[in-house]
Write a structure and sequence with these properties.
mainly alpha; single chain
């Protein structure tokens, strides 16, 4: 009987590998992605366990800024439509 080589690992394309992200980094990523998908800050805050929504808003202001730019463009499109 031929014994299998247990050290063999199939090669994976580098693009398929996820970067090593600490658990806390995943928490930030999750919150940022939720905000980017227009999930209301109260819901995101509750998921993070923040007692006040203002904590979430202060920490994730960078994500909210990009949403503000999107909102500005949307409003401009609405006002220019005839």
């Amino acid at each position: 009987m031929i014994e299998a080589d247990k050290s063999f690992k199939p090669k994976q394309k580098q693009s398929l590998l996820l970067p090593d992200i600490p658990l806390h980094g995943l928490r930030h990523t999750s919150a940022t992605l939720l905000i980017a998908k227009s999930i209301d800050p109260k819901t995101v805050s509750a998921r993070l366990g923040h007692s006040q929504t203002s904590t979430t808003l202060n920490i994730y202001a960078h994500a909210l800024k990009s949403l503000d730019e999107t909102a500005s463009t949307a409003l401009e499109d609405i006002l220019q439509a005839k």
